[in-house]
Structures are given as structure tokens and as C-alpha cells.
Amino acid sequence: MKVTANGLQIEVDDTAGEGRPVILLIMGLGMQLVAWPTAFVQQLVDAGFRVVRHDNRDIGLSQGFDHAGVGNIVWETIRHRLGLKVRSAYTLQDMTHDSIGVLDALGIEKAHIVGASMGGMIAQRLAASAPERTASLVSIMSSSGLPGPRREVTRMLMRRPLGKSEAELVAHSIRLLRLIQSPAYPQTDEELAERLTCSMRRAYHPAGLMRQMLAIGADDDRPKVLPRIQRPTLVLHGEADALVPIACGKDSAQRIPGSTFISVPGMGHDLPPEVCTILANHIAPFAHAADAKDKP
User: Fold this and answer.
1) Fewest CB atoms within 10 Å of the CB: 139, 140, 179, 257?
2) Which residues form the domain of 66?
3) How far is CA 101 from CA 45, 169, 219, in A?
4) Does residue 241 lie in a domain region?
5) What pTM does this model have?
């Protein structure tokens, strides 16, 4: 369903459930709400939560920003390396206001904010700028800013698909996923192709991904933001993450006062079923404990 959030049309999925504590799931770069696996959502529902997912702006079924142009990712990368400010159509703080707007539209006063990758960056900003809306923060495979991906992953991110057909686009995405997948929990090409095909048929908007990438590049002050987070925080990170190395998660946890850091052996930068179960088994008791501490 569509809601108006921060003045934009944002696509939302809500499991509902009157009186249940709410978990707001925020997905990463170029990923749609369906990238949160249904089984993972159901695990959280079974644990007693109302779960809300949304497509971030400029991706999926939410409002796009094609009017803003795409920008030159190569030139902006050079600017970044020279220490110059990256120029972007919008900021991660703007996307944070979108997430708060989703809560407003659904009449939700406070939620456990769970973000993965770029979604974790947005979740961090939400916890820092709107603590009154944050029951707790869970930052998954995310970052305070540095270090960056492994060299071969960076090269693959900058590479264009060999063609524009659905099969060629899916094959290109599989090549990237193979570099960043969880080595302990590999998925078959058939499993990956099915998921990617369903996602592309729901919505395919590569220009939005590029604008989101620039928004990440422009978000250079987050290390200064993290110490302001005062809500209960859990940082979860895969030990085999090739896209956002585990050092990023450790640095995030060190900057957030009182946070808990948990590494996940064999986990990369994806959400296979086994990893989802591990994450849910950490998130559910952590969120329940945070709620218990908030009760008078």
C-alpha cells in the first residue's frame, strides 16, 4: 500500500497487529522491501512483533527522483578521493525523514529500528536524530563509513551488465552476489535467479540505485553522529562480508555508547534463510529486553 511520508508516496508492507511492539525494517542500497525475506518477517511476527517494511525513495514502488538526473558516479568518486564533498540529489538524512514519515502515516509512536547495509546507516541516523521514536536500534552489516569493499567487489559494482535483457541483468546481479554471498550458506544460481527475477519484475530502477549510491558517498559526517545515539543498540555483522568488511561493524559499535556487537561466522553481505534465522534469534530477544527496560 502507498502512504504519504515526508511529502512522498512510499510503498509500505505492514503485518499489523494491534498492541504489538513494532519493528521497522529499512533495506539497503537499491534493494526493495521484498529483499527482507518473507520467512524472516514471519519469524519476527511469530516472536510477537508487528513488522513494517517499506521501499526507500527512488526504488521499488516508491516515488522516484528521475527529475533530479543521475549524476556522474565516476567524477563524484574522484571528488570523494580528493576530499571534496560528493554531490547528491538527496541525503541519507532525507531518507531518514522518509522512514519517520512512514511511522507517522501508520500512527506508530515508537518502533525498533532495524536496518541492513545502507538501511543500517539510515537506521543509525534515525536513532540519533529521533530518539523519542526509537525503541531500539539494530544495525546489520552496516558501516560508520570506512573501510570500503574488497577491490574485486568495487570493480564489479562499477561494471555494467552485458545487455539489457532480463536474463542478462539477472546474470550480472548473480555475478555480484557470488562475490558478497555468505560462504557458509551458499545459494544455488536457480534460487538467486528466481529471487532476482521476481524483484526486477516488481520494479527495476537502476537510476535510483545510482542516486542512492551518491547519497551514501555524500554522508561523510556519520562518524560524528553515532556517539549521539543513546537508545539500546545491537550491531550484527558477518565475519565474511566482502562488501562492508566486519571492521565497519566493529567501528560502528565502538562509536555508539553502550552498544552490543555480535559477529556472525560464515555470514557475508546477504540474507540466506540460515542467516535470517540467526539474525531473528538475536533481534527478537534484544527488542523484547529493550521494551521491558522501558516499562515503568
Assistant:
1) 257
2) 2-148+204-294
3) 22, 33, 20
4) yes
5) 0.95
